[in-house]
Amino acid sequence: MNTTVLDHPLSRTAQPSASARDATRAFLARAARLRAPAGDESPDNVLLVMAELVANALRHTIGPCALHLELLEHSIDVCVADRSPHHPRPRTPSTEGAGGWGWFLVKRLATRIRIRPEPGGGKTICAELPW
User: Fold this and answer.
1) What end-to-end distance do the CA atoms of the chain give, in Å?
2) What per-residue confidence (pLDDT) applies to 92?
3) pTM, whole model, 2 decimals?
């Protein structure tokens, strides 16, 4: 089993979303060389879920955050750690541009979601997507 992994700290001062997106694209290119994705939409789905989890961590928490990606046997695990102990609070999605779609999309695209508390505080949210 391949253990392709990316661990990427998210700096709150140096364009963290762009940095996470670039790191994820490079990771997905490596993953695709090792094993073809499950479908044409797989890379886009991983990028979308990663972007939503990173944006939520940066928007709703303070302190350090980190992105962890791992190529598993049939999937990619997208994990974001932050210092907040609070779980995501789903909102009713709005067609008026007020948001609420992020957690809905993560739940829709992921085959499995785990939220685990971290020692010393905080949590890690992991969403597993087909690959």
Assistant:
1) 14
2) 80
3) 0.92
